[in-house]
Amino acid sequence: MNETMSTHVPSIKEINDSIKDVRARLRGHAGDLIIHDIDEDGEVSIEFIGACSACPAIGFTYLAIVEPALTEIKGVNSIKTHQVHLSPAFRKRMSTFTQGSSSRIGS
């Protein structure tokens, strides 16, 4: 690969450092988030643990707080989790609540 074309893929430590505020919010509700992996294409593999793993609001938390924080990190291009399944209709409906508000939600 040409050096000018290479893209920085952040380490798991860099990602964790970038989302420490998000993880603090999740811990405030007896949950947390684990970053399992990031591949060479910038796909981050995550898992919700603790209370988050069984929370009925996991989809909203993911869409409003976790996804925006992760995709803000340079080199993160997508997120994979087996715990959150959001339909396009849900994403569209929730976008009216979440756009520009991720820093306020859950505070």
TrEMBL record:
Residues 15-72 form the NIF system FeS cluster assembly NifU C-terminal domain. It comes from the Bacteria. It holds the Pfam family NifU. One of its GO terms (biological process) is iron-sulfur cluster assembly. SUPFAM superfamilies: Fe-S cluster assembly (FSCA) domain-like. GO terms for molecular function: iron ion binding; iron-sulfur cluster binding. May be involved in the formation or repair of [Fe-S] clusters present in iron-sulfur proteins. This is NIF system FeS cluster assembly NifU C-terminal domain-containing protein.
